[in-house]
Write a structure and sequence with these properties.
- With 684 residues, the chain is an alpha/beta fold.
- The protein folds into three domains: 228 residues; 178 residues, Rossmann fold, CATH 3.40.50.150; 177 residues, Up-down Bundle (Growth Hormone, Chain: A).
- Helices cover 55% and strands 10% of the residues.
- It contains 23 helices and 13 strands.
- Strand 5 and strand 6 form a beta hairpin.
- Helix 1 packs antiparallel against helix 6, helix 18 crosses helix 21 and helix 19 runs antiparallel to helix 23.
Length: 684
């Protein structure tokens, strides 16, 4: 028989004007919406977060876990949350971290100098602030749990989370600036926090909310600021008086404070930057059908047209960069009837298209950001694997060529990419290092060796060059199979701070000891979610739409598990653990190559089955176990803290690849089974 133990209602929640169910849905939606907004907004103003996007995610998980653990220990409303949010916004506005545009060099994993506080100072501030901000909504969610049966409360929590994802996705689709995020946050605080006493409410809720909305409005009104689903995009006229007199306009485009692109006439670009013309010089025949991946604001497209292309397929992942190109590029390349634009992920386009090309060009596809929810996967990571270059080779016409160019901070990166191309094409490519100091390089391979014209033979990769990146470990910029010290130190500090925070907020650790298995379930679930995000990114693209669908799909699978557990008599927990481990084994055995070979509809069905079967089984296990706990908020908080540890543990993928996370998850789930209290093994 399921236990429905209740804990005393705290904080006067019985007197809240909003009934418990809608209040729980709203608080859960607000919690997830605020988490997503913080990840996007802080990353747009603190350049370090472009490379540590899960830093805010980890802080959010810590805060959410602490919020649940705080339930029952305080009768006060969590007025601290809007205050800390306002302080965070003020700090970020006062001390933004941007790239110093006056320094020489190329941004490559923050290799350019930055202005503002150093990473070691600002990142801990962001982490702690995110935890404190999210602790408030989580406490409001947690206070609703004792008023409802376990699984019913969890059900409404999931429905609210899905609503939060839907709201943020809709605003991303509409390219809504952050002032709308601030207005939603202010509205949720106003509805959810009880206004007693009134003076305290005004001082700790209304005033901080006005500060947040006011500052975000000022940012929104900043000249040239455009919000895409990935970045804050800003433009600046960079035309010198001499060029303006000559009728040559130049516009600088920066994303999240990082110099990213320039719009200028194609002829002017070719005159001063040799790399843009080399792919056409290395081809044996003038290319007529051209595919450009990373078309951006259109300069590479304009160059292809100037070289005589009869058709250009321009692939760009960011719709706002494409719109900027349409609006401000002096050559108006996107207005040319020979150009066909595709707003999608480059690797996904290669896998789906049936077209063949004379030239496929990867045109500086450096995204400068990571996929949300994955600690080390950049938007372009799957473009630079051996499998991706084989996919490009398969899309070439007889006599066709494949080329890429970029600025590379290290010579071994040039050698790694060249050797990857050699593996994919079966012969040495042409390698032109245009600027030795900046490692500006163009790497070109013909379909056969006879289809390329090299200035000289590439001598081959230098000793010590890492092996080509592959789809399981798509970490081009990681030279060795290791976790960089900066990550190890940062994660160690995160865990230390988390231990201290849990002790300070929740009291003795003994309180959570009975729920050690739920903690491990949280760790394992986070690894499954990471594997799902990265797997779907490979199969369907790293676009924000795919990412949003995956997160929503995970929550739908969890909700389905809860509903099934609520309505039907499920097998005993050891049996469900067996189903879970079988699902992990299936995910291990099914190769990505096979999934990629399927037509998109069948690929979607197969991918959903493989990815969501273990997620469903894991959450049936959690639902059955959670329904039988004596303390709903403490057990749920332990599970959420486990998810935070799982977010740290996902960095193990740098060592063992994303597929290896399945093994780690399996070990964790076996550990959770071993820690399962004996009384819960019998059928419930």
């Amino acid at each position: 028989m399921t236990l429905q133990a209740q804990t005393p209602v705290t904080g006067g929640e019985k007197d809240h004007w909003l009934a418990v169910r809608p209040r729980l849905i709203l608080a859960s939606a607000f919690m997830l919406f605020l988490e997503l907004a913080l990840i996007r907004w802080t990353g747009s103003n603190i350049v370090h977060l472009s490379y540590f996007t899960n830093f805010v995610l980890l802080g959010s998980f810590l805060g959410i876990g602490l919020g649940f653990l705080r339930v029952g220990r305080s009768r006060r409303q969590p007025y601290y949350s809007p205050v800390v949010l306002a302080v965070l916004v003020v700090v970020v506005f006062t001390f933004p971290v941007t790239v110093d545009r006056n320094t020489e060099g190329v941004l490559y994993w923050t290799s350019l100098s930055t202005s503002g506080p150093p990473a070691w100072l600002i990142l801990p501030v962001i982490f702690c602030a995110a935890a404190a901000v999210l602790m408030g909504p989580a406490e409001l969610v947690g206070r609703c749990f004792p008023e409802l049966p376990r699984l019913e409360a969890y059900r409404y929590d999931l429905i609210g989370s899905l609503s939060g994802i839907a709201a943020f996705t809709a605003l991303s689709f509409l390219s809504a600036p952050p002032v709308f995020w601030g207005l939603i946050a202010a509205g949720c605080y106003a509805v959810l926090l009880v206004p007693r006493p009134r003076a305290l409410y005004v001082g700790l809720v209304a005033v901080p909310s006005l500060v947040v909305v006011g500052l975000l409005l000022a940012e929104t009104l900043t000249a040239g600021a455009i919000w895409s689903p990935y970045y804050k995009v800003t433009t600046k006229d960079a035309t010198s008086p001499e060029l303006r007199q000559a009728g040559i306009p130049i516009t600088d485009i920066a994303v999240n404070g990082i110099p990213h692109q320039q719009t200028m006439p194609a002829g002017f670009r070719l005159q001063f930057e040799q790399q843009y013309g080399l792919p056409y010089e290395r081809a044996t025949n003038p290319p007529k059908d051209v595919l450009i991946v990373g078309a951006g604001s259109g300069t590479d497209v304009a160059i292809a047209l100037s070289k005589g292309a009869g058709r250009v397929d321009a692939v760009e992942i960011d719709p706002k960069l494409h719109e900027l190109g349409m609006a401000i590029h002096p050559d108006k390349p996107y207005d040319d009837p020979r150009v066909f634009t595709h707003i999608t992920d480059g690797r996904a386009f290669l896998e789906r298209t049936d077209s063949k090309y004379d030239l496929i060009l990867f045109a500086l596809p450096d995204s400068l950001t990571l996929v949300s929810g994955a600690s080390s996967l950049r938007l372009e990571s799957y473009l630079f694997t051996e499998e991706a270059m084989k996919a490009a080779r398969a899309r070439l016409k007889p006599g066709g060529t494949f080329s890429m160019y970029n600025y590379y901070r290290e010579s071994w990166l040039v050698d790694r990419l060249a050797s990857t191309m050699q593996q994919a094409f079966g012969h040495k490519p042409c390698v032109d290092v245009v600027n030795v100091a900046g490692q500006q390089a163009v790497i070109t391979a013909g379909l056969t060796a006879a289809d390329q014209r090299c200035a000289g033979e590439w001598p081959g990769a230098a000793p010590g060059t890492p092996a080509p990146a592959d789809d399981d470990r798509p970490f081009l910029y990681l030279k060795d199979a290791t976790i960089p010290p900066i990550y190890l130190i940062t994660l160690g500090l995160i865990l230390l701070v988390s231990l201290l925070a849990v002790r300070a907020v929740a009291g003795p650790y003994d309180r959570m000891r009975p729920y050690a298995d739920l903690f491990l379930l949280g760790v394992g679930f986070m690894l499954l979610e990471t594997k799902s995000v990265t797997g779907f990114a490979l199969l369907f693209g790293t676009t924000w739409v795919v990412n949003a669908i995956v997160f929503a799909g995970v929550l739908v699978a969890v909700l389905a598990a809860v509903e099934v557990t609520r309505r039907f008599r499920m097998p005993p927990l050891p049996v469900m653990y067996g189903v879970l481990l079988a699902g992990l084994l299936l995910a291990w055995l099914v190769p990505n190559e096979w999934l990629l070979s399927l037509p998109v509809p069948l690929r979607a069905v197969a991918a959903v089955t493989v990815a969501f079967l273990p997620i469903f089984a894991a959450n049936v296990v959690f639902a059955k176990r959670f329904a039988d706990t004596a303390d709903a908020t403490t057990s749920f908080g332990a599970n959420l803290l486990g998810a935070m540890v799982g977010g740290c543990l996902e960095y193990a993928s740098l060592l063992i690849g994303y597929k290896g996370l399945l093994i780690v998850a399996a070990v964790l789930y076996v550990g959770a089974l071993a820690l399962l209290p004996r009384k819960t093994i019998a059928p419930v």
